[in-house]
Every structure is written in C-alpha cells, then in structure tokens.
Amino acid sequence: MFSTILKAKSSSSNLLLSKRSTAIFTFQRFLSLKTLTTPNENALKFQADQQVLPASSDRSSYQITLLNQNQSPLAVTLFENCHAIQSILIGGDFITITKDEFAHWNQVRPLAESIITSHLKSKEEVINLDYMSQGTKEDTTPMTEEEKEITEEIEELIATKIRPSIQEDGGDIVFLRYSQGTVYVQLQGACTSCSLSDDTLKSGILSMLNHYIEEVTDVVNLAEVEFMKFEQKMKVKRGGK
Hints:
This is Scaffold protein Nfu/NifU N-terminal domain-containing protein. Belongs to the NifU family. It comes from Wickerhamomyces pijperi (Yeast). One of its GO terms (molecular function) is iron-sulfur cluster binding. It contains 7 helices and 8 strands, in the order H-E-E-E-H-E-E-H-H-H-E-E-H-E-H. Helix 2 packs antiparallel against helix 3 and helix 5 packs across helix 6. The chain is α+β, with helices and mostly antiparallel strands. The protein is globular, with a radius of gyration of 23 Å. It folds into 2 domains: 109 residues, Scaffold protein Nfu/NifU, N-terminal domain (Ribosomal Protein S8, Chain: A, domain 1); 93 residues, GMP Synthetase, Chain A, domain 3, CATH 3.30.300.
C-alpha cells in the first residue's frame, strides 16, 4: 500500500499560506489475490500481484508445517484458524495451501483467502527475518571435481528450467545433493501429496536433467520427515549453528 501526496505550494506570505487549503491526493493500491487450482486437488495457489517474500530472502520459497509454524506469523494465524490446513508454501509472489483430503474447499478457501489478504495488507512479516538469515542448508559431503561440475549444472537447470514450471503449478523443488548418478530433491507445496508427483519426478525432472546431463540416471524425492532429518544432519555438520 502506498500513498502519493501532492501539496499546494504557497509563493506568498504565511498569511496567504494559512488561507490557502492544501490539496492532498492519495493513490491507494489495493491488493489483488487470485486463487488458482493446481494438479493437486488438495492444494490451491493464491497468486498475489506483489512480492510476498522480501528481496533479502535467498530461498525461492519456504515450506511451513505445524512443526515449524513459529517461523511464520502468517502460518501461525492460518493453522490456528483452519485446522484442515496441512502445509503452507510461501513463494516469491504466491502462497500455496495444502489441506487434508477430508475437508472441503468451500470451507477452507474463503477463510484462507481472508487471512492471507489481511496479513499482506498489514505489511507484517510473512517469514521471520532471523529464520531467513539462517540461509540455505548445503550438503558439505566431499565431492570430486566432476561431481562439483555436475552439481553446478544441475542447480542451474533447476533454477532456470525446472523450478519456474513447478512454481507455476503451486509447488517448488529443493535440490539437496548429487551422488553417483542420482539427484536428491524435495518437492514442496502442491507437489507434496499430488498423485502426479511421480510423473513429475520421472517424466519431467529426470527427463530434463538427463537430456542436458547424461550422467544423471535417477531422481529421488525425499519425504518431509527425511528432509528434516537431512537439514538436521547439515546443522550438526556446521557445528549446530
């Protein structure tokens, strides 16, 4: 929300200034939030017409569940008011809500949309700044020069060709590591519990990577619990920081 204020200027004395009224014109931008369906019937993408994540974020998105909801004031409000929500993916200019399969969108959607709109208009933090400052979790497993080169190529392909199309469908992909022909990733958001995630993994991601990097022979998606174990392992390697 922003305002442009134009004030009439006086070219005479204070007396003239006191008699002249000041003209103030306010231009107010209203938040537009589009609700988009995804390939996952239990996930909806809420597309904003403004940035959701601050420019200082070094991640493309943040996956929030009940386990780490305290890292996001918005997530806390959503989980408190709508118990059917299972996970929240907060991207650069979108938010994807995944609900449990027994809930109906006609109950979840209006509430989620109202909370998201209200929070974004308030300009409150969407993700805690101290959480963002922790940076991404990098695998420090020793690699050969060839593996380093392949890893860099994989990261570039994911960033430029794979992630944009996945985010278009309300999901995201986190690259974890490359080892002996296998690429380990985590699919997030709408991709988490989607029946088409295996097709996305094999037909889409693997085919794309193998087309450009023949050394890649398989792609493995780590489940949420395995991913959290991986993050904890990386934290221990960095000395608990």
